[in-house]
Amino acid sequence: MTALRLLWLHLRIGVMNELQYRANFVLQLGESAIGLLTALLGLGIVFAKTDDLGGWSPDELLVVVGIYFLVGGLAQMVVQPSLQRFMEDVRQGTLDFTLTKPVDAQTLVSIRQVEVWKLVDIAIGIGVLVVALVRLGHAIGPAEAAAFLVALLAGAAIVYAFLMILATCVFWFIRLDNILVIFQSMYEAGRWPITIYPSWLRLGLTFLVPIGFAVTVPAQGLVGRLTLELLAGAVALAVAMPLAARWFWHLGLRRYGGASA
Amino acid sequence: MRHLPQLYRAQFRTTFADQVQYRGALAIWAINLILEPVIYLAVWSTVAASQGGAVDGFGARDFAAYFIAAMVVNHASVTWIMWEFEFWIRQGTLSPRLLRPVHPIHQTIADNLTFKILNLIVVLPAAAVLALVFHANFTISPWTLAAFVPALLLAAALRFAIEWTLALAAFWITRVGAINQLYFVVFLFLSGQMAPLALLPSPIATLAAWLPFYRMLGFPVELLLGHLTPTEALWGIGAQAAWLAIFVVALNVLWARGVRQYSAVGA
């Protein structure tokens, strides 16, 4: 609860900060529109040559695109900028100010920096999902909706824990400017269902960098192609990985020397 | 002009030291380099499989050859000047560069060449491994290989000139992120990066053949893989040279105008 209240607070600060730079909203709108256009054109070109891509129909791939924007937007709005700032704080020793605050430090460093205009990506993601759902119409029952929601929440938890673990490495290496970019660049692969990739890449995108759980698995849930075992696996991972991230965070924190050390 | 070779040598050394130091950034770059062709390769191989093994004459092994060759050509022609130049302008670091007795473009050429030559150590083995993993169908004849060399060099020169010209937009606009993004989307579809031109809907393919994007990537690739006749190859190399001439002129004109109206940040 405290976490949500803090997130809300930082969201408001983010909004107030950004309202000074309203031109950025237009820029973000343009960038997101180009991103959406790219995704749709890509689908158009591929589906001009076939009616199904490894078992996925065009409307089902629209679901993948929607989730890709939604999850990517969430990560880029809160988690990535916050963790980027946390890594900078460790490097400069200014994490002291965060650690002395009377709230959980891991929560605080995870939600402190909000890029408000990324809401545009989230809105686009939801919009694309709605369009896809209307077009799929009949196929979505309550079971699919439930599987989708559970898988989406699990995917979000897994992605958060993964990014948190990556960022926590900064306690050992101090300078790791680009490590979060690894996720960003591999996330591109999530535009397409990872089931079409060769097995080595599919395994990598499932267990090394959990993009499959973030995008493909929720999409499978929505189109009713998610097995119970896979869903259970996603939930188990969504419990285990945040716990591991928590443990790793405490381990790393013990190495933190502070600004004057 | 006498001192140019010296300047290039110095820049070679600087970039070399820089690259060796930031190995982490290099690893991230390598992931990107390999991931992109594999994504499109997987997509199109899946399409080919669903169409009984081939689409428009491309089977899975032909796609493998196409996208792996495209990866190498892309590496040979890539530039990052559009971000770098914006940074120069916004941070005001263009000013000291203007004071030097040579055009700042020389430094970027040397920097670019060093990066590419150095990273062949990563690119060529990566291409070889991918070719083995995906059983790429490389059928290269002596004449296509011979014609590929000038086509590749012209592609690299053309892309350098075009992206330098676009980078100059930063003289007039402070945030060029949107322009860059738009350019890369057009590049993605019209250069043959996302799919061989033959697979695009025909109006787009026709448009692409007349624009310079295809000359920077798809053309050298298809030339190498023997998809083109000798006449088409000659015609294409001519088109590359013509576009290069156009953009070198544009670059010079815009540079002269831009510098005149440039006022350093903080000055």
Structure report:
The complex is a heterodimer of chains A (261) and B (267). Chain A is built from twelve helices and no strands. With 261 residues, chain A is mainly alpha-helical. Chain B is mostly helical. Chain B has one domain. In chain B, 76% of the residues lie in helices and 1% in strands. In chain B, strands 1-2 form a two-stranded antiparallel sheet. The two termini of chain B are 30 Å apart. The mean pLDDT of chain B is 89. Classes of the chains: A mainly alpha (261), B mainly alpha (267). The A-B interface holds A 27, 30-31, 34-35, 37-38, 41-42, 45-46, 48-54, 176-179, 181-182, 185-186, 188-189, 191-192, 196-198, 201 and B 24-25, 28, 31-32, 35-36, 38-39, 42-44, 46-47, 49-51, 55-56, 133-134, 175, 177-178, 181-182, 185, 188-189, 194-195, 199-201.
- Uncertain spans of chain A: none
What percent of residues of chain A adopt helix (DSSP H or I)?
Answer: over 70%
By DSSP (H or I, 4+ residues per run), the number of helices of chain B equals 12
Uncertain runs of chain B: none
**How many DSSP E strands of chain A?**
0
Mean pLDDT over the residues of chain B: 89
Bin the helical content of chain B.
Answer: over 70%
Q: Give me the secondary-structure category of chain A.
A: mainly alpha
Order of helices and strands of chain B: HHEEHHHHHHHHHH
Q: Helical region count of chain A?
A: 12
* Proportion in β-strands of chain A: under 5%
Distance between the termini of chain A: 35 Å
Name the biggest interface: A-B, 34 and 34 residues
Biggest β-sheet description of chain B? 2 strands, antiparallel
Give Rg of chain A in angstroms: 19 Å
* Average pLDDT level of chain A: 88
Query: How widely separated are the two ends of chain B?
Result: 30 Å
Structural class of chain B: mainly alpha
Q: Roughly how many Å is the radius of gyration of chain B? A: 20 Å
Strand order of the largest sheet of chain B: 1-2
